């Protein structure tokens, strides 16, 4: 069993602020520095939102462009994944950065409840985002907040609206959405394997204190793992996470414990069927 584990670092998100944890990177230069540390620690995917200077969520393509340029310079080879989910209600503005051709973008294919609101993903917007990803050769990561989202991704793939075998992320522990439940987690895995093939790659993310739980479940079950300050700002009950890299390091230790190598960016690109990227070596 030498299936290398791909570690994704979700550096910023749309919610956590400096008041929650001063290590949350807000400006583009902070984001580049934080990602670089996480890349050195073992992350091969960066999942990114951008923020305004007052820390409110943004979908400004110019900010995304500056971030992409800096990441390509300072983290060569790392897989860049932009969030299209961070500004529920913003409509097509959520996908305005796709024309920058990031390697990947998150794609939510259905609606569900979030802690204090509805996370709106109406069918016409889902179809438009998926179509834009086809146009610009951006690989979607399907954010499965519910079982139905995995089956919807399968339908979209069968219809040709998603180019490659969908890469699904199981998200558990968002208040008012799917809780952390081991039986559901196992059923998610068996559903992905039934619909997309026994070797289909998948990943998992847990929110708050459950981040470490989902990290360990995913690493032990042969999946890939997402960590980072977007989902969780603490190391444990008493300590704030000092950086995104510290959370990545926690997953690296889980990989050691479960005898999984940590995927290099080349291995991660190969596993996910991604293009090598502008000016980069061929993925191998
Ligand atoms: Zn996100």
Automatic annotation (TrEMBL):
<dbReference type="GO" id="GO:0046872">
    <property type="term" value="F:metal ion binding"/>
</dbReference>
<dbReference type="Pfam" id="PF05853">
    <property type="entry name" value="BKACE"/>
</dbReference>
<keyword id="KW-0479">Metal-binding</keyword>
<keyword id="KW-0808">Transferase</keyword>
<dbReference type="InterPro" id="IPR008567">
    <property type="entry name" value="BKACE"/>
</dbReference>
<keyword id="KW-0862">Zinc</keyword>
<dbReference type="InterPro" id="IPR013785">
    <property type="entry name" value="Aldolase_TIM"/>
</dbReference>
<dbReference type="GO" id="GO:0043720">
    <property type="term" value="F:3-keto-5-aminohexanoate cleavage activity"/>
</dbReference>
<protein>
    <submittedName>
        <fullName>Uncharacterized protein (DUF849 family)</fullName>
    </submittedName>
</protein>
């Amino acid at each position: 069993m030498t299936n290398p584990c791909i570690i994704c670092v979700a550096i910023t998100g749309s919610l956590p602020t400096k008041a929650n944890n001063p290590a949350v990177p807000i400006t583009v230069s902070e984001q580049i520095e934080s990602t670089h540390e996480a890349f050195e620690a073992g992350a091969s995917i960066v999942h990114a939102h951008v923020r305004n200077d007052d820390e409110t969520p943004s979908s400004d393509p110019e900010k995304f462009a500056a971030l992409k340029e800096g990441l390509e310079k300072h983290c060569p080879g790392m897989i860049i994944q932009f969030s299209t989910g961070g500004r529920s209600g913003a409509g097509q503005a959520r996908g305005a950065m796709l024309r920058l051709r990031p390697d990947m973008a998150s794609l939510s294919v259905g609606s569900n409840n979030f802690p204090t609101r509805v996370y709106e993903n109406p069918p016409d917007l889902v179809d438009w985002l998926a179509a834009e990803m086809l146009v610009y050769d951006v690989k979607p990561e399907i954010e499965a907040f519910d079982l139905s989202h995995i089956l919807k991704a399968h339908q979209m793939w069968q219809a040709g609206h998603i180019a490659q075998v969908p890469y699904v992320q199981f998200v558990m522990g968002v208040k008012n959405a799917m809780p952390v439940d081991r039986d559901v987690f196992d059923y998610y895995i068996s559903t992905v394997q039934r619909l997309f093939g026994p070797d289909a790659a998948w990943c998992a993310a847990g929110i708050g204190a459950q981040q470490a739980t989902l990290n360990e479940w995913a690493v032990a079950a042969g999946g890939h793992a997402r960590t980072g300050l977007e989902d969780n700002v603490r190391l444990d009950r008493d300590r704030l996470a000092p950086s995104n890299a510290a959370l990545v390091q926690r997953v690296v230790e889980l990989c050691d414990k479960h005898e999984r190598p940590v995927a290099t960016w080349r291995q991660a690109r190969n596993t996910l069927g991604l293009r090598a990227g502008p000016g980069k070596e061929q993925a191998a």
